[in-house]
Design brief:
single chain, mainly alpha
Length: 216
């Protein structure tokens, strides 16, 4: 009989296992039964910690956020632009580290208050630049939703960086859309060089925040 003691089963251990398994099977294949099998427990044991899959996704998103911010301190001399650039770039990089990372994050509710301090710091920078609290909140939300939506579309084309799904060949798209020359020409801008695409879109939003709200 083995005398090896297993780590106690808790919410964080389950979420950690789920995130590891996510990269292998994707969100559709991530079932409580599959996670239980990885943990070498019976599936009902997980229901002591999570009432359903959505509750698990909430904890997974929270764990992703913990990992994203662990050890990362905001630069004290950041202005509002630099803070939004930095935080959203880190968010995108974190989401891309997991297969279907944007889908996991989308629509979830954080299970702790780890995000509160980061949100407070962002709001403080934006209000010090002249925005009202509602305007600052909208600026944070808009950049967050842009990043989340961008990565969701990016992972729809490339589930894993550099691994493109069938049906997204830009040259084949141009051939099929030959009767729509401008749309055909837009293909590389829409389905290629995602780093450049992302940065240009984020810059557009920051320019809009400055123009709309007069941020200093």
């Amino acid at each position: 009989m083995s005398t090896e003691r297993r780590a106690p089963l808790d919410r964080r251990r389950v979420a950690d296992t789920a995130l590891t398994l996510l990269n292998e099977v994707g969100l559709d294949g991530l079932t409580l039964r599959a996670i239980a099998r990885e943990l070498d427990v019976k599936a009902p044991a997980l229901y002591w910690h999570f009432k359903d899959k959505q509750a698990l996704l909430d904890e997974m998103a929270t764990e992703m956020f913990r990992r994203m911010t662990d050890g990362i301190e905001p630069a004290p001399d950041d202005d509002w632009r630099e803070r939004l650039l930095r935080s959203n770039r880190v968010l995108r990089r974190t989401l891309l580290a997991y297969r279907d990372g944007a889908k996991v994050f989308s629509g979830t509710r954080f299970t702790g208050l780890e995000h509160a301090e980061h949100q407070e710091n962002g709001l403080r920078l934006l209000t010090s630049a002249g925005l009202t609290v509602p305007q600052a909140a909208r600026a944070l939300q808009t950049t967050f939703l842009y990043t989340l939506g961008f990565v969701a579309e990016e992972q729809g084309v490339e589930p894993v960086p550099g691994e493109r799904r069938e049906g997204f060949d830009v040259e084949e798209r141009a051939r099929l859309m030959a009767d729509h020359p401008l749309a055909a020409q837009a293909g590389p801008a829409l389905f290629g060089d995602y780093d450049r695409q992302y940065e240009e879109g984020l810059a557009l939003i920051l320019a809009g925040i400055e123009a709309r709200y007069g941020a200093r």
